[in-house]
Amino acid sequence: MRFFTELVGLIVPKTASASLGLRRFLALLSLMLLCLSGTKAQSTAGLPAVNGQAVSAAKMEMLTNAALESGQKDSAALRAQVRESLVQHEVLLQVAKKSPVLQQSAVQVQAEYAAETTLVRAYLQQWLQQNPVSPAAVQAEFDALKARMGDQEVRLRQILVATPEVAANVLAQISGGAKFEDVAASVSLDAASKSAGGLMPWVVRGALLPDIAQAVAKLNKGQMAAPVKGPAGYHVIRLEDTRPFNAPELAQVQSQVKRNLEIQAVNMHVQKLREQASVK
Predict the structure, then answer these.
(1) Alpha helices in 71-163 (DSSP H)
(2) Does pTM top 0.85 for this prediction?
(3) Helix (H, G, I), strand (E, B) or coil at 240
(4) Angle at 104 (CA atoms; ends 100, 105), nearest 5 degrees
(5) Which residues fall within 8 angstroms of residue 103, CB to CB, at 6 or more apart?
(6) What is the dihedral of CA 130, 133, 135, 137, to 10 degrees?
(7) Which single residue of 32, 71, 184, 223 could bond 188 by disulfide (Cβ 3.0 to 4.6 Å)?
(8) How much is the mean pLDDT over the chain?
């Protein structure tokens, strides 16, 4: 079990944006809602028709754009794949519309809630467009994050136990000559590091939980700290090694830093609306 924060995740670029996931969701959900509402797609020349029901150009364009935005290249093969997906989807829609499932109250409630969720997400996306995160804000957040991360990484071994009494016993065993690795493999509750003798991945100091970072700061290589209480239990820690850490340039992580700020902005906006709402 990792005992440091997910701050490291902020400096790792993601390959897909959250807005892309939203566009895919909107595309698929709109097709579902067309079925549930009984709306017929407009006939368009050159597009497939399933049992006389034509698939609209809007659907084709929507799913093609979603595929292109996910990184796929525009090609005849891609468009053929989208076409076949729409044909299969239409076949299933037609069968589903004739089945009793559409009359099930649970399905109707799910469809209604899905439509409401789509509207809410679209509103929040629009709100972000109207209240964009500025480049200056991204730079300031990056600078603050860089400062928090520090300029050094550490490699730790840990033994995670449930109680301070067990932690004290662990310290006594190791002080009495037992190998840290053997004790970790025997009693540690951290499945991720237990098989490696408690060895943890390299982590920047700024990503450690505050209490653990404070304890580690006092250690020299090979030294153990007194047990530190964390969310998962008590940690017996030994400092294995240190090395310099060079933070990435802003250009490498700009999209992720911006996305984190957008999430914060949306959360604050939602909280403000919640506080203004009358809830009895």
Answers:
(1) 76-98, 105-130, 135-149
(2) no
(3) strand
(4) 160
(5) none
(6) 140
(7) 184
(8) 84
Model confidence pLDDT, tens digit, residues 59-84: 889 899 999 999 999 999 999 999 99
10 Å Cβ neighbour count for 243? 9
* Cα dist from 65 to 1, 68, 73, 95, 129, whole Å: 40, 5, 10, 27, 20
Residues paired with 148 in a beta bridge: none
CA angle 101, 103, 108 (to 5 degrees): 95
- Model confidence pLDDT, tens digit, residues 161-180: 999 999 999 999 999 999 99
> For residue range 2-59, what is the model confidence (pLDDT) as tens digits?
333 332 222 223 333 333 344 444 444 444 444 333 333 333 446 888 999 888 888 8
CA 37 to chain centre: 33
Query: CA–CA separation, 144 vs 106, rounded Å?
Result: 48
Angle between helices 76-98 and 18-37 (to 10 degrees): 40
Residue spans of beta strands (DSSP E) within the chain: 49-50, 53-54, 152-161, 203-204, 228-230, 233-244
Compute how many other C-beta atoms are within 10 angstroms of the C-beta atom of residue 142: 22
Question: What pLDDT is stored for residue 39 in this prediction?
Answer: 37
d(CA 247, CA 257): 13
In this structure, the strands spanning 49-50 and 203-204 are unpaired
What 3-state class would DSSP assign to 249?
Answer: coil
Residue 256 is inside which H or E element, if any?
helix 250-276
Structure tokens, 49: 């028709």
**Residue position matching structure tokens 């493999």:** 185
Structure tokens at 48: 């497939």
